[in-house]
Each structure stands twice: as structure tokens, then as C-alpha cells.
Amino acid sequence: MKFIRRSWYRYSKIGKRKKKKQVWRSPKGRDNNLREKRRGYSAVVSIGYKTSRKEIGKIRNKIPVIVRNLKELEKVKKDEIVIVGGVGLKKKIEIIKKAKEKGIEIQNINVKKFLKKIKSKEMENKK
């Protein structure tokens, strides 16, 4: 469960269109419905919501690994999920194609959509 500050969707200074600002702040107001844990309001941080030790730091029960080149992609194991980061477009295309061949899952890129977009761009450039 993700805990986000109350009224984050209202103001830009506390999170509207700004993920970095969407952090939990404990409600302290006298008549605050969130603090009173009223029905219909989002959950408040409390005991019992902690993630189990086995799941901490994992994405879909797989260990995340940042990949910056093809050598690092070859070292990826079956119980790991790839995050492509800090790479230019040319290298990103190579990594994604290689990962698709090997059947490696990529977290931060929709592989089908990405390759389709690149193919359409190549077709436009040929014309």
C-alpha cells in the first residue's frame, strides 16, 4: 500500500503533477477526518502495514538490477528484473532487443510499445 499526503491532488506544492512531493505527512488538524480514521478516507500509516522481510526491495518477487550495457544484461539471472537506466536511445534499443530474445523482463519500459514506436520512426525516416 502506498501512503500519500492528504490533498496531494489539490495543490502543486504538495504533489499535484509532482511525484517527488507526494510524501506522507501525518495529519494533525483538530477536525481532520484522516486523523480520525473516518470511513471513505485513505489509510493512515500505522502498525500492521509493514512489508515482510522477503518482499522488501523486490519488484514482483524479483530482485531489481540496473542495466547500462549488454555485458551487464548477460549477467542477469532468472530471479532478477531489469531496469534500463542512464542509457542513450541507440544502446537502449540494443538492450531491449537482446532482453526480448532472452526472455528477460524489463520493469521501466513497455517493450512492445517501445519497439513499435521505433519501427514507425524508422519507416518515416526511410520515406
Form type? elongated
Q: What is the number of helices?
A: 3
Helical fraction:
25-40%
Briefly note the structural class of the backbone.
Answer: alpha+beta
Which sheet architecture does the biggest sheet show? 2 strands, parallel
Work out the count of structural domains: 2
Can you offer a commentary on this structure?
The chain is of the alpha+beta class. The protein has 2 domains: 1-50, no CATH class; 63-126, no CATH class. The protein has 3 helices and 2 strands. It has helices spanning 70-74, 89-102, 111-126; strands at residues 63-67, 80-84. It has a two-stranded parallel sheet with strand order 1-2. The protein starts with 62 loop residues before the first strand and ends with a helix. The model has no long low-confidence stretch (mean pLDDT 93).
What labels describe this entry?
single chain, 127 residues, alpha+beta, 2 domains, two-stranded parallel ribbon, 3 helices, elongated
